[in-house]
UniProtKB/TrEMBL annotation:
Residues 88-100 have a biased composition (Low complexity). The chain crosses the membrane at residues 12-33. InterPro entries: DUF6479. Keywords: Membrane, Transmembrane, Transmembrane helix. It holds the Pfam family DUF6479. Residues 101-116 have a biased composition (Gly residues). This is Secreted protein. Residues 33-116 are annotated as: Disordered. The keyword Membrane applies. Residues 38-49, 56-76 have a biased composition (Basic and acidic residues).
Length: 116
């Protein structure tokens, strides 16, 4: 008889757990609907962005070089660097495509000149 009572309690516990999960899912759906109602509506067709008059913007493919870090006798912090610590770049003199040296693939274990 104790076994039957244990199974009944287990079944009741699982049913309660299932109801809790269903209640949480319904609550999440209701909360999501409320958040969605507060969001602005999607833009109308006349509010969409348009292409520039001179056509689409094209990708610029060029090699870049880093700007030099200013020399100083003491250590510089990022806010003391030009452009607030962001590393600046400029166009490279050589716009040719860089190639790996012969015999190497550029990654570890690629069988380069030193056999690595």
């Amino acid at each position: 008889m104790d076994t039957a009572a244990g199974r009944g309690t287990l079944g009741l516990g699982l049913a309660v757990a299932g109801l809790v999960v269903v209640a949480l899912l319904i609550g999440a759906f209701v909360m999501g609907a409320r958040v969605r109602r507060r969001e602005p509506p999607p833009p109308r067709p006349e509010e969409q962005s348009r292409l520039p008059a001179d056509g689409p913007v094209r990708e610029v493919l060029e090699n870049r070089e880093p700007d030099e870090v200013p020399r100083s006798d003491r250590r510089l912090t990022p806010h003391q660097l030009p452009r607030s610590g962001n590393a600046g770049t400029r166009s490279s003199r050589s716009q040719g495509r860089t190639r790996w040296t012969g015999g190497g693939g550029g990654s570890f274990g690629s069988g380069g000149p030193d056999g690595g």
